[in-house]
Amino acid sequence: MSHPSTFWDRIAKRYARQPVADEAAYQKKLSVTRQYLEPSSHVLEFGCGTGTTAIYHAPVVADVHAIDISANMLAIAKQKATDSGVDNISFEQADLHELTCPNASWDAVLGMSILHLVTNKDAEIQRVYQLLKSGGVFISSTVCIEDSGAWFKYVAPIFRWLPFLPTVAVFSERMLKDSLEAAGFEIEYDWRPSPEKSVFIVARKPLQR
Ligand SMILES: C[S@@+](CC[C@H](N)C(=O)[O-])C[C@H]1O[C@@H](n2cnc3c(N)ncnc32)[C@H](O)[C@@H]1O
Fold first, then answer.
1. Which residues line ligand 1 (CB under 6 A)?
2. Prediction pTM value
């Protein structure tokens, strides 16, 4: 079976050209995310893709570390950051489990359109929890196709057997929230424009004394 990065490497240029599917929803997510960021924030984004979200937030935080498994996505992201004159984003080809930074390094972790694409969302969420500082926030946007009623949810499990397509996990918003809470997060904000749209969640790692 091919590595999941093969698919994303192949579509990177096309992905970069595509307009955002729901611009109004994306803008709202950016603006809510901003409310949780501060000039001193150290931000990690995983599955950063072509870097649009990282580049948007970088000017208002201390720094952003943006990671992705796809070299081609990262190449586009780096070029966009340079073109935008943003110099406080570091890029790394890695997934969350390959990161070598110490635990409790980050004030905020962003995971936009990624949790439904990983093979084990619970392991990913637990890793985010480890990586966050006490009181830090995990901000995510996730397709929960179990709730959508779309035909796609019935064929999605087959995708994992097709080497040229990425895994798309089938779970509901409730299951996602259960996973976040089981890891120790407290859900502070959630928004879903409609059942077929992604669910946007701000989850906090409680302050530990
Ligand atoms: C749907 S795109 C989302 C990109 C970006 N976050 C956005 O909202 O436009 C998914 C991205 O996640 C990356 N990806 C897939 N699996 C990953 C993993 N396990 N760890 C890190 N990145 C991953 C892909 O290479 C791709 O760039």
1. 4, 8, 46-49, 53, 68-70, 73, 95, 112-114, 117-118
2. 0.94
